[in-house]
Design brief:
This is NlpC/P60 domain-containing protein. The protein has helices at residues 35-48, 65-73, 143-148; strands at 2-4, 12-16, 19-23, 33-34, 53-58, 61-63, 91-93, 104-107, 111-118, 123-128, 137-142, 152-156, 159-160. The chain has 161 residues and is of the alpha+beta class. The strands form four sheets. A six-stranded antiparallel β-sheet has the order 7-12-8-9-10-11. A three-stranded antiparallel β-sheet has the order 1-2-3, with no helix packed on it. Strands 4-13 form a two-stranded parallel sheet.
Length: 161
Amino acid sequence: MFIQIPFFLFLFVFVSSSNIYTVSNVTVTSSSITRDQIMQRAQVWVDEKVPYSQTATTDGYRQDCSGYVSYCWASSTSGGGHVTSNMQEICTKIAKGDLKKGDAILKPSQHVLLFGGWIDSDAFYEYAEHQSGDVCRKSTGSYNYFATNGYFPCRYNLVTG
């Protein structure tokens, strides 16, 4: 179903089953997603070696760090996904001890990566699009490194489990 609001508002609303999408830089509501689904989506770009790009898109999402996490979380594709400066609109800060697969480690306006699970009390698996010339990859990261450099853990607001 498609509903058009008066032209002067420059706003369009799409309604489809459980999802409501509002386009024109307005918050988008999506359906929930499980941690297993997030991690399955994360592995797709790793397997495909999707190259980093702030302009190119895959499946409607920018091929940069925040586009990748937006893709993994199946959040809005509006504008290619969220950006690090507005990721906090769709996630909530959590404690280190609450981190689970599918959560993220975020430094607003800088970088975001997907948390893939603990290796030990500091090392963890990270899934990320890091920089130009690189491809989406799974690697290991140090929680202490990120924490001392202004990053914090966060959880997608619509994740289940």
